[in-house]
Amino acid sequence: MVKGRNLEIKISIIFFIISLSCFVIHFISYRHTFPPVNVDEASFFSPGYSFAKRGVLSSEIHKSFLPGSSRFTYWMPPLYLILLGTVFKVFGVAIFNAKALSFILSILSAFFFSFITKDKYLKFVAISLFLICPFVIITSAFIRVEALSILLIVLSIVAVKNELNVVVLGILAGLGLMTHPLLLPCAAAIALIVLRSGIKNFIIFSIVALITISPYLLYIFKNTEVFQAQMSLQFLRKSKVKLSDLKLSYLLQSVPFVFLALFCLYKVEGLFRFRLFITVAMLLSLVIVLRSNEFNYQVYIIPYVIASVILIMDEQREVKLVRFVLPVSLYLFLALILISKTRKYDLHNDDEYNEVITYLSNNKTWQGQQIYVDGNPDVATYFLQQDQNVERQIPIEGAKPNNWFDSYNYVVNVHGNNVEGNYENDSSSEKPWLKWQQQTFTTSGHAYTVNLFIKPQRVKWAGQE
To answer: 428 with 435: CB under 8 angstroms?
Structure first.
């Protein structure tokens, strides 16, 4: 028996080393290209930048497109934005610092996942499955809220599993509500199990959660009109997504995981309270994930799935099919999705993306200009890092104001040649800057093309105002 346990530990360590290596190598060499940088990063970077520089959560990068964004950021709860702004305040405004924050938060999630069990083998299994997951790997280098969200979900799972007191649960639920709407299922599931433990506990839990989110509520009351305007645009975009729009690949990256978790939970005999929490939180999350149909939202399901697998492995320790075949099969399935995503994104390291940044750094005709950024990969965060006045179209639903482009005199477009095709084929009525003076640069491997558009200066005649 001891020999078998030692073999388990050795195998789990091997998988752990593979997972950790993939995780670290991705951050070192592929953090800008897997997946390609998109406008979401600038949308989160901008409020963090404003918080660090001016002490306000404004999204000035979208000020021409999002009502009130030059003063408030209401389209997303503020906890991650404040954390990012604090990192910028302490360590400096830099893209690397923002991505390093996501990386560290993801590492912390993996570490705290080990507290779900006392079994050493299962600790390695939980961490290995988490680190090899492609959704987690993407999250770990993305300037978005998901890294903090997953950490809070993992902490909630561990807190419920280890039956921590209602005060801790209230704080976690409150922090979740201040982070992302997809933590609502987690908070609701916590509230349900606390309610089952008695009305007194539920009252304490509710008071603690309310105190925790009170700064957010006060922030909303600063300008409820702008809050309503920004959130209504978010809901409008979500309402346009139909279940019929879901692609098979999206479903295959979420639904099978949930079925596996439900099967594991069904087979477990004990820990009803914990199983109820996982079931409710996971199913509610799945509904929102499918309803939203957003990039990489599957990551919100993964912690619940891994917890379910660890739970049945912990209970049925003598069943080899459960103890070994189950985690290995899940590991290989996650690795297969990871490989398929590398093919989808035409995986190459960050060298050519760095060539783009080097070109922009050496060609500073943009300095001091009114810059509009277009295309993917997005480089708006680079200009924010350089303290430049830059704007980018809001990724949520919103109408462009009339003659919206008149305020810009410099447009930067970077596009992936293997993804978006020929930028010059676009209509000048949709992109009026195509008629401006143009400079073009293509990276050494032809992965990216940079187009700089400079607005012609109007010549004033003598005596003309």
So the answer is: yes
Contact call for residues 216 and 178 (beta carbons, < 8 A): yes
Distance (Å, rounded) from C-alpha 463 to C-alpha 465?
Answer: 6
* CB crowding 204-217: b at 16 or more within 10 Å, else e: bbbebbeebbeebe
pTM above 0.90, yes or no: yes
Q: Which two tokens stand for residue 285?
A: 């999350």
Regions of the chain where pLDDT drops below 70: 1-4, 239, 243, 395-399, 418-430, 458-465
Amino acid identity at 459: V
Q: Which of 9, 16, 41 is nearest to 144 (CA)?
A: 41
